[in-house]
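name: query_chain
kind: protein
chains: 1
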Amino acid sequence: MAQLWHFMGRPGVPMIYSWPAGHGGLRGYTSDSESAEFTVFHIKQFLRALAATPGLEKIHILAHSRGTDVVTTAIKELMLEYRSKGLDTRAELKLGNLVLVAPDLDLDIVNQSLVAEGMIFVPERFTVYLSKGDRALKLSSWLTNSVKRLGSLILDELNPRERADLTSLPNMTFIDADVESDI
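structure:
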């Protein structure tokens, strides 16, 4: 986090919210998924408390892999809560940029939960890093029997409607982070 904060020009105060994942083997994925469900309540509490901090102007969130499900679920639940009270979620949570790195999310669920329900418009900016060669996402796709994971999308391989749906969102940016590696 310190390196990321440094290279971003040291804006604001960096914070990390984490929980242990990777309990090993194929069964570990199930355990990680349940642990992710458990922590949604806690990240919501954390975001509420952080947003209530006097003088805080913006919150930028970077989530990775299974953590993207935790963060997007928490924000979606907060959006529904604030919406029911007639409040603006972006203003209440002071959300700037929501960055999803190698998001381990099913594309159909993303289209429904983030796009159709409007969660995509809660942060000012929404940035998604994609990598078609991500082996962990390939394993996740196999384990969940999911045809398309958001983090391993190849935009050119989407059908025209899917591509138009994703790329027409004004606050959303996709970055291809697929790199050649000998590792």
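note: Helices lie at 2-7, 27-51, 67-84, 89-93, 107-116, 135-144, 160-167.
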